[in-house]
Specification:
The complex is a heterotrimer of chains A (about 170), B (about 475) and C (about 950). By secondary structure, chain B is an all-alpha fold. Chain B has 15 helices and no strands. Chain C has 29 helices and 39 strands. In chain C, helix 4 packs across helix 15, helix 10 packs across helix 18 and helix 11 crosses helix 13. The chains are: A alpha+beta (about 170), B mainly alpha (about 475), C alpha/beta (about 950). Chains B and C meet through helix 5 and helix 10 of B and strand 30, helix 24, helix 25 and strand 34 of C.
Amino acid sequence: MRRDVVVGRFHQEPMVIDAVHAVRSCGLRIADVYSPYPIHRLDEAMAIARSRLPLVALAGGVGGLIAALALELYTSVIDWPLNVGGKPDASLLAFIPIAFELTILGAGLATAAGLLIRSRLAPFGAAPVVDRSATDDTFAVVVHCRDSAIDRRLVEQLLLNYGAMSVESRGLPR
Amino acid sequence: MIAWSAPAADRHAEPPSRRRTRWIDGDPTLRDITDDVMRPLTSRPGAAWWAAFAVAASALAIGAASVTYEVTTGIGTWGLNKTVGWAFDITNFVFWVGIGHAGTLISAILLLLRQQWRTAISRSAEAMTIFAVMCAAMFPLIHMGRPWLAFWVLPYPNSRGPLWVNFRSPLLWDVFAINTYLTISLVFWYVGMIPDFATLRDRAQSPLRRFAYSMLSLGWDGSARTWSRYETASTLLAGLATPLVISVHTIVSMDFATSVLPGWHATIFPPYFVAGAVFSGFAMVLTLLIIVRRVMRLERYITLRHLDAMAKIMLLTGSIVGLAYATEFYNAWYGHNVYERAVFLNRVTGPYAWGFWIMVGCNACAPQLLWIRRLRRNVPILFALSIAVNVGMWFERFIIIVTSLHRSFLPSTWTMYRPSMIEVGTLIGSFGLFFTCFLLFVRLLPMIAMWEVKALAGHRDEATR
Amino acid sequence: MAEPLTFWRERPEADTSRRDFLTRIGFTLAASALAGCSRGPVQQAIPFLNKPEEITPGVASWYATTCGGCSSACALLAKTRDGRPIKIEGNAESRLFGGGTCAAGQATVLSLYDPDRARGPVWRGNATTWEAIDKEIQPRLTAAAERRVVLLSGTITSPSTRALIAEWSSRFPHFSHIVYDAVSFSGLREATRRVFGVAAVPHFRFDEANTIVGLDADFLGTWLSPVEFTRQYAGRRRRALDQDRVRHHHFEAGVSLTGSNADRRILMPPSAHGATALALLRQIAARAGVAIDGLALDATVDNNAIAVAADDLWRDRGHSLVVSGSNEPSVQVIVHAINGVLGNVGTTVDLDAPSLQKQGDDAAVAALVDDMERGDVHALLVYGANPVYDYREASRFVRAMESVALTVSFADRVDETAAHCHAVCPDHHFLEAWGDAEPVAGSFSLAQPTIAPLFDTRAVQDSLLVWLGRAPGFYGYIRETWRRDRFPRQTRYQSFDEFWDHSLHDGVFETRPAPVAPSRSPERLALPTDAWRAAASEIERGSRDAANRSSTEYELHLYETVALGDGRHANNPWLQELPDPVSKITWGNFVAVSAAAAGRLGVESGDVLRVSSGDRVVELPAFVQPGQSSDTVSIARGYGRERAGRVGTGVGANAVRFAAARVVTLAKTGRQQALAATQTHHSVEGRPIVRTLTRDQLRQHDAAVEAPLATLYPPREGGQHHWAMAVDLNACTGCSACVTACQAENNVPVVGADEVRRGREMHWIRVDRYYGGTDAQLTTAVQPMMCQHCENAPCETVCPVLATVHSSDGINQQVYNRCVGTRYCENNCPYKVRRFNWFQYAGNERFDYTLTDPLERMVLNPDVVVRARGVMEKCSLCVQRIQTEKLAARREDRPLADGRIQTACGQSCPADAIVFGDLNDPNSRVAKLRAGRRHYTVLEELGTRPNVGYLMRVVDDEREQTPHTETRL
């Protein structure tokens, strides 16, 4: 296996941020950062693009709304108009609650689905185990580097300077 | 060029705006948090848990027996009659739906409001929501004369054609509202647990657990990109759950508000019911957490300040509910409607007045004690109050339903309602179901959102660095 | 769920096999064919392989007959489906009864299928055959030689049967026929004999009376001929609407149906009955200028009220009527005198064509018991009577029977009397038998079989013929008597067969003897006769005895209930569950006490009281009855049957034991027994639900009729028809015949006392009853309440599965098989008229009343499904009847005439208070009524726009007649 990444393990959030800044300022590419909880400032530090999930949610919501109104109007106006309490066939006011509920349902399910699909989350999905403790108390910064020994050593040194508990060079698991 | 020197501290100085009050006692490391939260899952259950589980399970058994008898014999096994068509059944339904609402409120609304203190309790509150909604959903099912035909309330294409459902009926609104609510709550709850499942997966000893958790954790790896997307998703879900939770109890209140019955036909019901739901929900959360933090030794994460905050919300919603009671009576008096007046007079002085006064005492009066800070941080008092509010809110629904029904328009139809043992058994059973589920939850799932608490702790490091 | 025709299911213990069923099918041919020709053998079975002309499966055939439910002998039509009678309706051809019936009449069809009926002849406790039992009985009768053979019967209105009995008298020198009425009018007959010389019950004409004064005579509920009287009474009120006024003063101790309808109800303890009559006579006589000498005014009576009544009577003299329910000849003599002085004899008191509905002779019965004890009676035949249950000295009667060599009962079951008889020769049910009746002289009706005898029974008349040594065949006998006595009295038909066919088809043949004329000149009647003086002094003595009563004692007032009457229908579940029109209590009798007495005794409704008089004791729950005379307790007779059957045995307690007693003592037992009441709140709470109108208001024709309420909804286009109903509260007396009629028509289940206590009775129509005023001046209002079929129905909106929706012709429809039973509709119904199937009532041993026993299931109406557990049900406006008539009209290609469709309730109503019709037809009766000044809909401010409306009751004086002006009770 080609040894093309350096993994630095940190135990404190702030050092991670600094390390990431430093690494990127050296023009090195950050493969990824694995952390037990979300670190907000990592987004700009790693320049992660804003998620487009809101659009997915919107689409789901609109879909739910249309489906609800279509169902209500088709069943009670077109397919089976009945005199119910003398009310009009299209009692739109009475149709609002269900339309609203289905809107929410559509949006919610779309959001969840979007998240899972986009992040490739699925039962037994193999987690690239950089470090088991990354889901516990360790922040693992993974840095790409050219395949030349000197750079690798420089990167390891850099991470150590920025407070890494340990560094290790290895190939990313496929 | 590359900076060789270690970074200077000042670069990490917190902007004052990001300083937070401390919602964790002591100074646990991230690993401590993992250990603390996972302790109940790894250690063997203690005597207290077994005792509680035995009680809950036998209550559930009583409920199962009652429901079986009722479904096989007929609704006649209840105390209902030609005039009072609903009583315990729908009372319990509304009661449990109400309980559920606090969970969503804590996890969703407080998330939007960036209330840090929710982190420690949100998980168990959401669990409570789901179990409560399960209990609630049971009642519309078993209250039907022919529950085996319950699927007829769903609009599915069929060969009896055209044969659809009545979208004008509040009961149908309920069907959609409750199912949506249950679904979204489950999704929200599960998504929130994925990172913790991953933690469990990575620390699991037994292969069985590893198998289970790796299935549940969906291959979560804690990558920054995933986290980023994940947070967007949870904010979205929170944003959706918030209007949902309000709409659900609004619709439940419309079961009554849209009827013609004096005592039900009231425009203030939606806000009145939502406030009541939050009120009763927080009471139930308090009841549970006060026990759990003790038994599970989690005082460190569920602090007095948490209890205090919840107490404040109870005070607010309780006062709203009290105001709603007053408004109802004002309307009845000011409205000059003979039927409306009779119903409310009957509530205060009639055969069920005792229930009315329990309701007023527990819901409107008792919570006013919480103006006093000392009481808000006095655990026994809070516990007693939370129980009182649970009782009071159950009676509120009972009074609204029964006193409006048993003496309505035509005096010739006036009757009295007396619950049968079967109904009482069913109520006990619903509590059995609820607590059985909750007790299993605290043993099988991390009852505190580890990653959220760790985030707090992490920021805390930062803040105190 | 629809299982209307399963009654022929083979069941080992059931007596109705498919073969029997076919037998009956076949018989229906026979029955209808018989109308014309001589009677064919009944037993022949004609399967549908060769279908009889007269029967189409699924189409009802109707047979005119005469009610055997009581001695009023109303003319009926029996509706049969596929060979089994399923519904009783009044025969509109009858001049006396119109189309009305009473609740008991409606229920007789269920008694036909009563599983507790005797299945065949019984000799000394063992089932036997008719041949065998005839061999036993006949020689014994003829061997009677020197000793008496007595036929003890209830009133027999059948002229042919009376003719047959006359033959017996001539055949057996020592034979005698004694008539015994459990509720006797012997006193009235005797009084009529003393005053007018003939022992008869006059035929009363309430329709001719502008002022009516009733002395404890429940003529709208149970007295003599309630259906006929209700019809007359309501008709008179209707005629009087906005012109002249009709006044009804009622003096009574307990609250009767009649008293609750009176304009003025005055409390009168039984002991004051005679004195009241006397005081009334005095007042009338004073106005007539007739001197009544030597009698001081009696202080125990309400002289003011009597004076008011006297004024009204005198104003309407000649067209007023005083009736008394007393069985004391002396009292009835005074009442005759009053009517005489008022000149009512010949107008409202008809003696030329007297009533034959009560022929009992108490003196003869008493004498018979003595003779029996002395052993002078050799054979006793009991027919249509149950003295061991209801004779005032029952135990003595039983002992007396022991010294009779041969006792034979013709009862339809082994009842209390039959149990003490050597032989039981069960009679047919009247729907299985030929017969005729003459309820009022000159008014005849016929009865024909509508089904082959279900059991091995034999008509009484056939038994009598056989024992006379003649061939059975009462059918021929009737034809002969009619050929001999009736045929000559008409000129319309030349041949007897023609006459017979038409009479049988119409069911009635009515002649009028002579034009109405008083049989005594008013002058002579106006003078005090010796008869009055004797009666007066008798009464004076009586009331003096009544005066001395200890403080712990209460006067006893025995009465009949509308449902159970004298108790012969005790085994009929429909009647047991019929809410009493006054107390609204079902399943049992009770001790009605005044609030004052209840306070004194420290009891409330439901506390069990020990009622005792001498060694006779019964225990019954108390019921605090508003308007009850303070020192009088009322107890219904007809309950406490010991051998009625599985439904009626042991329901309530037998109060007839006290018939001899004047006063009883009450003691609290401390036990509780909840009353099975269908209405527990008695005040209308000042709500404008039952509305009234004074005559003055009614006269103001310009009075504005409320404009229809505004609605937000766009109008929906209606269908070809718009069905609607108008209920006339001015005519309705609350008799509750509609309740049982609806129950029979719509297969409404009976649920039993416990379920009624839980508030779960299933009746689709109920009669709400509200009290107002005070005990002394009780005001009552009744209101039949069924589904109002709202145009904007709250129930429809809330049903999640569209199980209740609105038809294009204005009916609120309930779709049973779609209903999932959320009961939301019930909750949202402002009228609370919806009924839920709390249990599986059909085919459930726990509810073994009408829907479980395969025999009783034969009464089910195949046009109406039997509802299953867990579904909601309610009034359908008899949609099956609507459909039948619509189809008939279409088939015959004619417009659907107004009045062709009658709902079951409307058809049965003797007061004609319920009118059904099509609002799209502006000339329909209902359309006209709805347009009228008196029309209103209940709770119209809710905007439900009901299609069932009400016509306000018209009153003379708001204060004295409308409950919701006073809500003290």
